[in-house]
Amino acid sequence: MTGRTVLIGLDGATFTILDPLMQRGVLPFLQRFAASGVRATLHSVIPPLTPPAWTSLVTGRSPGRHGVFDFFLRDSADSQHIRFATSQDVDAETIWSVADRHGLRTTVLNFPLMFPPPQISGYVVPGWMPWRQLRLGCHPPNLYDRLKALSGFNARELAMDMELEEKAIEGCQPDEYVEWIEFYTRREQQWLRVLRALMLEEPCQLTAVLFDGMDKLQHLCWRFLEPARPDESMSPKARTIRQLVLEYYRQLDRALCEIVSLAGPDATVVLASDHGFGPQNTTFFINTWLQQHGYLAWADGQAPLASDTKSVGIGQLARHIHLLDWERTTAYVPTPSGNGIHIVVAGQGSEHGVAPAEYERFRSQLAQELRDFTAPASGERVVSEIWFREDAFAGPSMELAPDLTVLLADGGQVSILASDEPFKLRPEVRGAHRLEGVFIADGPALRTGEQLAPLSILDMAPLLLHRLGLPIPDDMEGRVPTEALEPAALLAQPVRTVSQPGAAATPPQTWSGPVMDEEDEAEMLRRLRALGYVQ
Amino acid sequence: MKRSRSDILADILVLLRELADDWEYSGTINGDTCLVADMGLESLDVVILGLAVQERYGQTMPFAELLVEIGQRDERDMSVGEWVDFIHKHVNDTGGRSPESRAHS
Predict the structure, then answer these.
(1) Which of A160, A342, A491, B60 has its CA at 20 to 30 Å from residue A219's CA atom?
(2) Is the confidence at residue A316, as pLDDT, over 90?
(3) What's the complex ipTM?
(4) pTM across the whole model
(5) CA nearest A323 in B: which residue?
(6) What DSSP element (H or E) covers A197?
């Protein structure tokens, strides 16, 4: 066994923001930490979104292998019903499950897709859990009462409050920013409080905590945070908001310092994000585009208008598909998060839709029309890349994945609402996800001051298992990034793999696109034929 | 083992009262209590409760369809009694899969 291993998740962290903040002295601990360890850009999965990306990071498998593509998923391949994804939908073993099999204990705090909680040796408080039901998510069952006894513990601040979450999607009123930013600053303190108690009283070999306020703040406050934007160009109110956001980062930096100190000098500490971030200047109303091109029809009077901001609330999403006229809809986007288009295929839960024999031609034509769509003012393409699902999501869960996934030219997320025009400039810049996240790590076995070539998010699970002294299941798609490790540490603890029963033969499918050999291609064609997609 | 409606109602009332203590809800909870109007739950609260019930009974149930049906009502709400009826209808259905069947985490 090596020393303790700590994974600190920073949801949405990007070097685009962290580097300037380190240079300006806002993140002094992180600057020292990165200088004494290794760092690299961490490429996310398609789509670069919280549930699939964190699930990939902690399983070492891509979405087509673990089955999580979005916050929501379809009940089955032939169902239009969507529901909230849960831990039961994760079709791959997590690092804490592997650790548990080897007799190691884990503390897991605030990761998504953790409810119902796994029955591992250690402690679990799930993320994305409504505060009223937090008790049900805690493992072991008496943990919630222990947390309640902590001085300053506030379940409502720690767990999810839907009204606040929806603001990250729908936007804040101008007078709500201060309260909203201060809430997320306090929220990280709540998680730190729980983490501190467990690290001191019940130290585990593996500790994993996710801080997700960065993602929320960057969505709404990107225009206040942009490093290139000087203070002098901002209004006094905007400067106040910028200072509050910077205070969030300062506090997080102090939290990181404390966690690393609690972990001790022998620990390996890995900081990683699920995806990066960047500005989004436009809105592509993709369902409106589909409607205008004859692919989608809303039921009479049911079009969810963009002007009605409540119509896209997370709680409303499951209803959206019932606003469609299914006799006249052949393609639709059910959620605003995954940029995924679903094609209605006749015979798969619906008598209407595209005939199976026509599927390939239909999908190719739709993809081409999307590629050809240009912004009216600039003439530039709106969609920069489109992935077919067998390219992005090869694996046993592919049938539940979107048929097409789009990458927008400005890197943003689509809107699923109805609008008079399918493409508009945003009145204000907001933040949106990018594929390029961050990896920073330090510990006795890690090299010092190295900037590594980009890594895959799929490499994190093998690295963490290696640092725990465990063999790597051979169906994990990533690798131990040995270039991050001191040669002596590798000699002392070589990488070991272990056969994983039932491992699939599909190759890694991450941001870099399809990599299929002849055998995989044949298998994919066999699957598509079985589904009636290929003659 | 078949579960009676009264057993399920008793189970659900214990669950809701335990949770209600955590958010300091002091109103009465019985079969007529409405989850949204009386207890102040939000749609995701109801989703999570549905998952907890599936876990407890080891049986998947079509909660997504139930939520859509509720969403189309004039009053988007459901009483505890209605919820128990739904569970009772599906809990003894052996056609569904176990919620653990895909779980590895």
Answers:
(1) A342
(2) no
(3) 0.76
(4) 0.88
(5) B72
(6) helix A177-201
Q: What is the domain extent for residue B81?
A: 5-91
Q: Which parts of chain B register pLDDT below 70?
A: 1, 94-105
Q: Domain residues of chain A, as ranges?
A: 5-71+82-275+435-497, 281-430+524-530
Comparing CA positions, the residue from A264, A513, A492 lying closest to residue A388 is A513
- Kindly identify which residue of chain A lies nearest to residue B61, measuring between CA atoms: A75
Residue type at position A9: G
Asked, as a colleague might, if the bond just before B62 is cis with ω within 30 of 0, I would say: no
State which CATH number among 3.40.720.10, 3.40.50.300, 3.90.780.10, 2.30.110.10 fits the domain covering A5-71+82-275+435-497: 3.40.720.10
Determine, yes or no, domain membership for B105.
Answer: no
Contact A116, A86 (CB under 8 A): yes
Q: For residue B98, is it within any domain?
A: no
d(CA A432, CA A215) in angstroms, rounded, equals 9
Q: Domain for residue B79, yes or no?
A: yes
pLDDT (tens digit, 9 = 90+) per residue, A218-238?
Answer: 999 999 998 888 888 899 999
State whether B19 and A132 contact (CB < 8 Å).
yes
Q: Is A83 on the interface with B (CB under 8 A)?
A: yes
Closest alpha carbon within chain B to A84: B47
Q: What pLDDT is attached to residue B45?
A: 84
Q: Which residues of A touch B45 (CB under 8 A)?
A: 130, 132-133
Q: How confident is the model at residue A523 (pLDDT cuts 50, 70, 90)?
A: very low
Instruction: Count Cβ atoms below 10 Å from residue A421 Cβ, excluding itself.
Output: 11
Number of domains in chain B: 1
Nearest to A419 by CA among A285, A258, A268: A285
E strands, A255-357, are 268-272, 276-284, 331-332, 340-343
Chain A residues lying within 8 Å of B42, measured CB to CB? 130, 162, 315
From the list B73, B68, B96, B78, the residue with the least C-alpha distance to A81 is B68
Looking at 1.10.1060, 3.30.1360, 3.10.450, 2.40.30, the CATH number of the domain A281-430+524-530 comes to: 3.30.1360
Q: What is the CATH number of the domain that holds B22?
A: 1.10.1200.10
Q: Is residue B43 part of a domain?
A: yes
Closest CA to A353 of A340, A367, A343: A343
Contacts B14 to A, Cβ<8 Å: none
Q: Which one has a higher pLDDT value, A318 or A76? A: A76
Residues sharing a CB contact under 8 Å with residue A363, sequence separation 6 or more, in sequence order: A343, A388, A403, A404
Residue type, A483: E
**Which residue in A67, A94, A132 is closest to B23 by CB distance?**
A132
Say how far apart CA A193 and CA A150 lie, in whole Å. Answer: 8
Burial class (CB in 10 A: 0-12, 13-18, 19+), B41: buried
pLDDT in tens, A273-300: 999 999 999 999 999 999 999 999 998 7
Taking only the tens place, the pLDDT of each residue in A392-413 is 999 999 999 999 999 999 888 8
User: What is the rounded CA–CA span in Å between residue A58 and residue A79?
Assistant: 28
